[in-house]
Amino acid sequence: RQRDGNGSRSLARPRGGEAQGAAQSSSADDDGTTTDMEEDEDGEVRRTAALTPKEVRSKKVAMRKRRRARHLRDKVKAVLLEEEEKQGLEAAPSVRNKYLQPRALKINVDIAAYHAREAAKRRNGDPSRALKLYERCVELDPMDGRGWLGLARLLFAQGETEKARRSFANGVKNCRRNAHLLQAWGVMEEKLGNVDRARGLLVAATKADTSHAPSWVALGLLEQKRGRNFARAGDCLQKATEVAPQNYYAWHCLAMLAWELGDVETAREHFERGVEANPSNATTLHAWGTLEQSQHRRERAKELFRQAHRAYRTNTHVLLSWALLELEIGRPTMARSLLRRAIRINPRDGALYQALGQMACRRRNLEEARRIFREGTQNAPRHCPTWQSWGLLEARQGRPDLARDLFQQGIWANPRSPDVIGVWH
């Protein structure tokens, strides 16, 4: 701008190459300030507040950076779409969502997943709220496998097998190489008896992530229990310990396999490695103690049971095994004390009443045995062996009708129990 003869301001035509710069950047006032011209996101130029020359230069640099970023973004979109068309991906929406659309903040998904897990807990849980929260996780970010995994597991726990399977399928579609989803899906199919399908999913999980130890463990257990292919099971479990040397459960499973094959020394070594990885793992200490008890190393077994009890004081399985060991050693008073302590911890564990009642039978204290068996069937009615022990007691006392009635009540209480077959024998 310049002043004319009357003292008023008028626009002067820019000279030469200054025209474009003046149109896109700024124009100068008399006092040295400038009226800045700025591009918005769509490339349109708009007028902003008056700035100093230094601020104008900074604005120009920022505008150039935005242009380069916009150009790069358009180029990335074009390349991704071209690759998508070239490869013919089945999960094209997933690729598009991942790279071309904004994803929810991870912290939001973290919070929703945490509250969903809390609501899904068995004690004081709210399954309906957990279901809504897991669905919310999926809505926030379909490419976060936690939402699909939690949703499928919750549906399976509620007996919605087909819905759980669809959730796993949708999760794998959005998270193609998620070993956690593939492994959990395989475990579910194995529980449903679909061994071949489970094996295929677990193999896919190990290929998706060769360092995912739970997939190797699940595949090894499948081959051990379902396929009875012990060599293949050993290879898978060994691979799990190689990729995750601190995975105590892998060492535990490998020890149990060696024990089943009769290799006691190798089983001890694997149990020891598992305890080194997690000294407070009561399950491994308990299993190791049971192994030593079977080999008549009672003092060593007792020490392991004591360690397991210190690690997990409310584990009634440990107390039961310890009590039976004390009875074997010849200390029935200590055995009864341990069993009563276990019953106080978990009054719904039927195996405790069965063992305590059988001890009373050995002492020929039949009335006490009946009282214990009656209490056990009231607190744990689905425990078939307690009904069987009570029935055997009455049968040996010449009361076959009462024994037959007790056997039948045990079958009605839990007809799907694998122990049912032994009730009448």
Give structural notes.
With 425 residues, the protein is mostly helical. The protein is 70% helix and 5% strand. It has helices at 18-24, 53-87, 92-100, 106-119, 127-140, 145-157, 161-174, 179-191, 195-208, 213-225, 230-243, 248-260, 264-277, 282-294, 298-311, 316-329, 332-345, 350-362, 366-379, 384-396, 400-413, and strands spanning 2-3, 9-10, 26-28, 34-39, 45-51. Helix 5 runs antiparallel to helix 6 and helix 12 (248-260) packs antiparallel against helix 13 (264-277).
Secondary structure elements and pairings:
Elements: E1 2-3, E2 9-10, H1 18-24, E3 26-28, E4 34-39, E5 45-51, H2 53-87, H3 92-100, H4 106-119, H5 127-140, H6 145-157, H7 161-174, H8 179-191, H9 195-208, H10 213-225, H11 230-243, H12 248-260, H13 264-277, H14 282-294, H15 298-311, H16 316-329, H17 332-345, H18 350-362, H19 366-379, H20 384-396, H21 400-413
Antiparallel strand pairs: 1-2, 3-4, 4-5
Helix pairs in contact: 2-3, 4-5, 5-6, 6-7, 6-8, 8-9, 8-10, 9-10, 10-11, 10-12, 11-12, 12-13, 13-14, 14-15, 14-16, 15-16, 16-17, 17-18, 18-19, 18-20, 19-20, 20-21
The unreliable regions are 1-36, 41-45, 87-100
Overall geometric form: elongated
Strands ordered across the widest β-sheet: 3-4-5
Radius of gyration: 36 Å
Strand content: under 5%
Mean pLDDT: 83
User: How helical, in percent, are the residues?
Assistant: 55-70%
Q: Could you give the distance between the termini?
A: 110 Å
Number of strands: 5
Main sheet summary = 3 strands, antiparallel
List the helices and strands in order.
EEHEEEHHHHHHHHHHHHHHHHHHHH
The count of helical stretches stands at 21
Secondary-structure-derived class: mainly alpha
